[in-house]
Amino acid sequence: MLRSLMTGVSGVRGHQTLLDVVGNNIANVNTAGFKKSTVIFQDLLYQTSRGASSPQDNRGGINPMQVGLGVNIGAIETIHSQGQLQYTGNRTDMAIQGDGYYVMSDGGRTLYSRAGNFILDASGNIVQSGTGYMLKGYTLETDPNDPTRYIKGTQLVDMTIPVGQKLPAKATTLSGFRCNLDSRVGAYLPMGFLTNGVKATGILNGVDRAITFGSGTDVNSFLTIKVGNQTIQMELNGVDQNTKRPKLADNTFALDGNTYNVTFDSESGVLKMKNADAGKPNDAWEYELGAMMDYEVFSVAENDGTEHHYLVEFNDLGSQSGDRELVLWGVDNASTVSRFSTNVTASHDGTFVDPSGNGLSLGSTFPVGELFAVPSSKGQGLEIRQGSASGDVLTTINQRIPSTHVTKLDVFDSLGNSHTLEVSWEKIDNNQWRWRAWLPTESGITLKDNTGIISFGSDGKIETASATPTMFLGFGALGAEDASIKLDFSGQSFGKEEIEGVTQYGSAFTTKAYYRDGYEMGVLNDFAVGSDGTVVGVYSNGESRALYRLGLAIFANPSGLEKVGNTAFIESANSGIAQVVSPLEGGAGKISGGSLEMGNVDLSEEFVRLIIAQRGFQANARVVTTSDQVLEELVNMKR
């Protein structure tokens, strides 16, 4: 009798513990980061009245005879399943989606928790609300070799947000561009013969020949053609006003014992090389040379009405000042070829200037006297005037604005003053563009190395030799330090492929300064937490700085953690040592800012368990009362 009485008592005690655990779960149904517990029952022990015996001869085996002596609480396990996320809108609240625990300190112990209800204390420390536990993370420092990346510290530190801290002004030293220059547009100015990047192959006498073209530089050579080791000079023979192409005198050259006639049709733009031997009519080669010609034409008339026509072209001299050579080609009545030229200076923004103010003389041997080139009123064209810089305008050669592209960005000097930097690209040849950079709203600031030429390959990608020029800005005139700014057109200085920098494809212009360092002074007034646990400080000047990377602890056996109250855990002998990693690394989850992870208690489940605990308690209490009644009957038998 006493056995059943004590067995019932053990059942009552066990179910009382179950009621305690269920009650604690229900009590913490709204506790952020709370992890529910469950009770594991085990039978206690057994009194063996008879042991088991094996089968022998004609008798079978006998099972053991045992009487159970009650129930025992085998374990109270903590269930570390994910709780639901609740949006709070509070920038200091955080929730972990996935594995991991916040690492905190109470000044002596290291604590772990899933409760992300953090606040800023009076010293700017990120602490857990209600407990003051200090949140731990890793410091982040800007990578000196790549300003777009950060280096994470190796030791966990208290995370402090120094609200009100000043961020000193920083001068701009680097600006990167990601854009496309439209290869379909024509040259920015009539640039004559566009030969850059042209590689032709012709079959003459049954053999593949490398054929190259070049512009002439004197009256005897308007066009130079090379076929193998042979050089052919094509002289100017007139001007086709309709097609704006030159008329070229026929020529011949010898190759492999054969004589070839070379002709150019200014109307169709087709260059032909044909074997002079009538018996070899198929030994010929044609090329669309006219597509490579870009000239303007203007005419002047003598008093008797005789007109003279001139081809106009520019040659980019490649100097840092962006000077260009203006060239006029013509043929007079005596079939004499003339070539007139003068250097034209361009300002920082590419407009034409006349330093002397007297015009640029093109020479006095024209049939109508001396001609002068004079910048137009806005400098975007050149007026060809007769007799003097104030003479009659014979024609105006305008820059082709659709063939240039411009973008603007703000750069900063060492005092944090903002300056608008304008950068343009002008097409000057096939696969070649001139870039310029200037300050459109400021004068008196010296600029050096602020223009140059960049080239592109046949694949549309920039050639790296000219991809990262550095320009000088004389900010010393404003009391700041003089500055040097690297303009990165390649994207490589940011660890990107060339395709991400400036390209030249047959697509619309797109220009964007995708990175620029430097900023004015700012004050830290806010912060935010990213999904990777990066704590970003937001300054009043619009700059953001990564300050810390949150640390999350991963355990081999989270159920082995020991609860110490305040929704915190500590390591135990069976939890394993904490492996502290960053969110989204090493199996850790991600951070959801402005949210809290609620407790993982399911009320419907807990109510069912509450009923089970109640009925179990009642049933075991019945065992006790029944055993008591039987004992009472046994005592009464003596009466």
Structural commentary:
- By secondary structure, this protein is mainly beta.
- The protein has five domains: 2-80 and 603-636, no CATH class; 85-164 and 548-597, no CATH class; 174-186 and 402-516, Tick-borne Encephalitis virus Glycoprotein, domain 1; 192-294, no CATH class; 296-399, no CATH class.
- The protein is 9% helix and 46% strand.
- The strands form 15 sheets. Strands 7, 8, 11, 12, 13, 14, 47, 48, 49, 50, 51, 52 and 53 form a 13-stranded antiparallel sheet that branches. The protein has a five-stranded mixed sheet with strand order 41-43-44-15-46, with no helix packed on it. Strands 29-30-31-32-33 form a five-stranded antiparallel sheet, with no helix packed on it.
- Strand 7 and strand 8 (110-113) form a beta hairpin.
- Helix 1 runs antiparallel to helix 2 (603-636).
What brief labels describe this structure?
single chain; mainly beta; Tick-borne Encephalitis virus Glycoprotein, domain 1; 13-stranded antiparallel beta sheet; five-stranded mixed beta sheet; 5 domains
Short summary:
This protein has 639 residues and is mainly β. It has five domains: 2-80 and 603-636, no CATH class; 85-164 and 548-597, no CATH class; 174-186 and 402-516, Flagellar hook protein FlgE (Tick-borne Encephalitis virus Glycoprotein, domain 1, Sandwich); 192-294, no CATH class; 296-399, no CATH class. Strand 26 (270-275) and strand 27 (284-288) form a beta hairpin.
